[in-house]
Amino acid sequence: MGLEDQDSIRILRDVLDPDRGSHDLVAQFYSRWFAVDLTARDLFPPDMANQRRVFGQALCWLCDEIIAQRADEPVAFLAQLGRDHRKYGVTDQHYATLQDALLHTLRSHFEQSWDQRLSEAVHDVVALAVGMMSGAATAETSPPFSDGTVLEHLRPTRDVSVIRLKMDHPLSYLPGQYVPVQVPQWPRRWRYLSPAIPADSQGYVEFHVRSVPGGMVSTAIVGESRPGDRWRLANPHGGLHVDRDDADVLMVAGSTGLAPLRALIMDLARFAANPRVHLFFGARFPCELYDLPTLWEIASMNSWLSVTPVAEHKTDPPWAADYPDPTPPRGLHVRQIGVLADVVTRYGGWGDRQILLCGKPAMVLATKAALIAKGAPAERIRHDPLAS
Ligand SMILES: Cc1cc2nc3c(=O)[nH]c(=O)nc-3n(C[C@H](O)[C@H](O)[C@H](O)COP(=O)(O)OP(=O)(O)OC[C@H]3O[C@@H](n4cnc5c(N)ncnc54)[C@H](O)[C@@H]3O)c2cc1C
């Protein structure tokens, strides 16, 4: 029966579910894999906790999709995963040893209940996952990553960096997409960042990075990046976009969540006629609205764009004494005080708009909930995945 044996796949699903305590099983699998294939250990960061959880979740989700007899999304997901894993240097040999280690670990785990039916189902699920990933990786002809050099590191605020790079080869992405990035300060710790300008044929890229308290990579980028650093960027993801033939647009950006929305606005600026775009750009303090001059320049030349700066606090903290004057330039809306979710919905539900949200997960979720409560249809609201 194999993949059609829903009962057996349900049993497999449950032992892989992190919420049902799959931690030890997944840890055993990785230990076995790294023991039989020493080169596999080098593919992963030292701290495996997140990797183990994501691995369990992904296999669990795959089992759910097979049980529900849905094929399209799992096939697309596994193929994308295989293409993405090329950036870690995963080879056919790694896939072969992974498959053996996973099957061996599961067989040992099931012990007495390992019968012909379960064996067939488990073999088929594992073969499907590994086969789709390695097949897609082999079929992909584009390079798995591309390197570039940091040209400039600006610090517009204490916590935010603007990093400008020139790639060795121009990077292809759509405005609004994000890319996996590896910086020299933290090898093998890939993080997603969203280019703040549309793709450039000369290879220039700009990122806006906010240092997250306790964050490993973001604090290193903001604290230590310098011209000459070599960054590695992999293939783009994401579908944040503006449909120019659709309704007017509401954009809500918290801090460096501005980056992909700014790239979309810059891309729209190529056209004379666009849907109206209203951007709310928010931060905690007025001084942290770091990119208002650029937004002002674009808005001053493009009547379809209006920008409302939003700060949670009315005045700046003492540490910002030397910062430039945070008064919004003439032509932008008066700065509003409050959290984005409240300020944006003070103007209504925006239900007739294409709605794009970007920023830290808590802000995106709060703004989405507030908009839906005001009547905006959930399907009109777009945002990137909230976690990497
Ligand atoms: C699709 C996508 C696009 C992104 N684009 C950008 C971008 O353009 N610019 C940018 O600065 N960041 C962006 N991020 C966030 C970025 O990828 C990292 O997650 C963030 O920089 C933290 O990484 P870290 O290694 O410093 O923190 P970690 O060491 O991974 O985490 C440390 C702590 O910080 C928390 N944390 C992780 N991310 C955030 C966050 N975003 N806000 C608040 N707390 C967090 C974690 O829960 C953990 O408790 C994006 C994330 C996603 C999913």
Strand order, largest beta sheet: 4-3-6-1-2-5
Characterize the biggest β-sheet. Answer: 6 strands, antiparallel
Q: What would the average pLDDT be, to the nearest integer?
A: 93
Which hetero ligands occur in this complex? flavin-adenine dinucleotide
What is the CATH-assigned architecture of the largest domain?
Orthogonal Bundle
* CATH fold title of the largest domain: Globin-like
Helix and strand element order: HHHHHHHEEEEEHEEHEHEEHEHE
Percent strand: 15-25%
Number of domains: 3
What is the straight-line distance between the termini?
A: 35 Å
CATH class of the largest domain: Mainly Alpha
CATH superfamily of the largest domain: Globins
Kindly describe this structure.
This protein has 388 residues and is α/β, with parallel strands linked by helices. The chain folds into three domains: 2-139, Globins (Globin-like, Orthogonal Bundle); 145-234, Elongation Factor Tu (Ef-tu), domain 3; 249-382, Nucleotide-binding domain of ferredoxin-NADP reductase (FNR) module (Rossmann fold), CATH 3.40.50.80. 40% of the residues lie in helices and 17% in strands. The chain is built from twelve helices and twelve strands. It has a six-stranded antiparallel sheet. It is globular. The mean pLDDT is 93. Bound molecules: flavin-adenine dinucleotide.
Give a quick set of tags describing it.
six-stranded parallel beta sheet, binds flavin-adenine dinucleotide, 388 residues, Rossmann fold, alpha/beta, Elongation Factor Tu (Ef-tu), domain 3, Globin-like, 3 domains, 12 helices, six-stranded antiparallel beta sheet
